[in-house]
């Protein structure tokens, strides 16, 4: 994919701030700190378009980025960050439910998991939640640079099994550090960008 334009648009907390142009949206979901923001930067070849952080919980709203004037990436705040108050967790849940239950331009969700570890209970819940709403899910196992290559396939199978994925469900191994999986990611996204 040739990237001719990539820009931050808006941080939305609800439908009042969602874009109204109807362009397709691809959402990024995953545990806090798993690498969602880094994924967006890497596949857009932009080092700092999306703010990333070693501190989890950086992304707190639905952050919209427009690409090639044609579609949006929506960076969704991560789950599983322990130091979040009950009140904030509930607000987060409502924000996601509103978005995932009724957002018509949402075409697919990239769910990021960590290739190093079996999926958490929350990863599995999120996967089921997205499937429940009928969204196509592309599972991306990231931070692959931290796993010896000889173990990639084994870890992949463990993750696929735990998430209940079928053999032909979209799944790819990724690294925001070295660009592994970038072309495959664009291939998987292509059907949803129009
Ligand atoms: P929240 O916004 O808090 O939900 O986190 P996030 O999922 O957006 O994670 P982010 O992209 O901010 O990355 C978190 C940390 O992991 C940062 O220190 C990144 O540099 C690091 N990181 C992300 N992707 C990779 C990767 O593929 N490999 C390695 N080695 N580090 C990564
Ligand atoms: Mg983030």
UniProtKB/TrEMBL annotation:
TM region positions: none
Location of the EngB-type G domain: 22-194
Keyword Plastid attributed: no
Keyword Hydrolase: no
Co-factor requirement: Mg(2+)
Keywords, ordered alphabetically: Cell cycle, Cell division, GTP-binding, Magnesium, Metal-binding, Nucleotide-binding, Septation
Biological role stated in the UniProt entry: Necessary for normal cell division and for the maintenance of normal septation.
Family per similarity comment: Belongs to the TRAFAC class TrmE-Era-EngA-EngB-Septin-like GTPase superfamily. EngB GTPase family.
Protein name per the record: Probable GTP-binding protein EngB
Lineage per the UniProt record: Bacteria, Bacillati, Bacillota, Bacilli, Bacillales
Gene field: yihA
């Amino acid at each position: 994919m040739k990237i001719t334009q990539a820009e931050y648009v808006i941080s939305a907390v609800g439908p009042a701030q969602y874009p109204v142009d109807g362009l397709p949206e691809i959402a990024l979901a995953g545990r806090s700190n798993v690498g969602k923001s880094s994924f967006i930067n890497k596949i857009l070849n932009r080092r700092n378009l999306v703010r990333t952080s070693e501190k989890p919980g950086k992304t707190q709203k639905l952050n919209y980025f427009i690409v090639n004037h044609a579609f949006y990436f929506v960076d969704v705040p991560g789950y599983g960050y322990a130091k979040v108050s009950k009140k904030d967790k509930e607000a987060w849940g409502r924000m996601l439910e509103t978005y995932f239950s009724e957002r018509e331009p949402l075409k697919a969700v990239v769910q990021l998991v960590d290739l190093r570890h079996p999926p958490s209970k929350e990863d599995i819940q999120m996967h089921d939640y997205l499937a429940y709403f009928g969204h196509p899910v592309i599972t991306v196992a990231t931070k692959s640079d931290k796993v010896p290559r000889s173990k990639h396939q084994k870890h992949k199978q463990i993750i696929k099994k735990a998430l209940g994925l079928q053999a032909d469900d979209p799944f790819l191994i990724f690294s925001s550090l070295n660009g592994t999986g970038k072309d495959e990611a664009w291939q998987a996204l292509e059907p949803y960008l129009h």
